[in-house]
Amino acid sequence: MRIPGDGEIRALHERFAPGREAFELVWTHCVIVCEIAEQIMARGGLEVDAELVRAGCLLHDVGVYRLYDSTGKFDYTQYVRHGVLGYELLKREGFPEVLCRFCSCHTGMGLTRDDIVRQGLPVPPGDYVAESGEERVVMYADKFHSKTNPPTFVSAETYAVHVRRFGAEKVAAFAAMREAFGEPDLKPLAAAYGHALV
Fold first, then answer.
1. Alpha-carbon distance 53 to 180, whole Å?
2. Are 48 and 38 contacting, i.e. CB atoms less than 8 angstroms apart?
3. What is the pTM of this model?
4. DSSP H helical segments within 43-128, as ranges?
5. Each residue's pLDDT tens digit, 53-69
6. Is pLDDT above 90 for 72?
7. What fold is seen in the domain 6-197?
């Protein structure tokens, strides 16, 4: 399988972004998630394809662009759909399943069919859960940066509190990833990007 390079992925973002502001927000977030994932992988001991993780990080949020309307207004009420929207976008572009799954399988600590039905989420019922080592690294790295206005870095402690509202199984899943992957050092990144660390 050919893994697209950074320039090719950036061009895809530029093509689908509804405007410069949306592009800067989403692309910068994806680059930051990539830097966090690289920090996690640098600790060693993980049997993952670093090139695949990098592509997954840079692609994972491409579906966010589909939540902007023709006037540039963002639909926050549909945010939970951005993963499946990204999956569909990449599928239509001819990307292989392994790359498309980075979009659909990174939301929260994973969405299960039960989560979707129980919460009445606007997502086709199914299991959207990180399975491979590469998917797990991308999902975990994504938890440490948020595209809020303004964007922020999110500490492990803050995310651990945030995830409680989604149930004990999500708390346990985050704790297991934290144990397996450790905590990234966010302070240098926060300083470099000028985003607060919460």
1. 16
2. no
3. 0.97
4. 50-59, 82-92, 97-104, 113-119
5. 999 999 999 999 999 99
6. no
7. Hypothetical protein af1432 (1.10.3210)
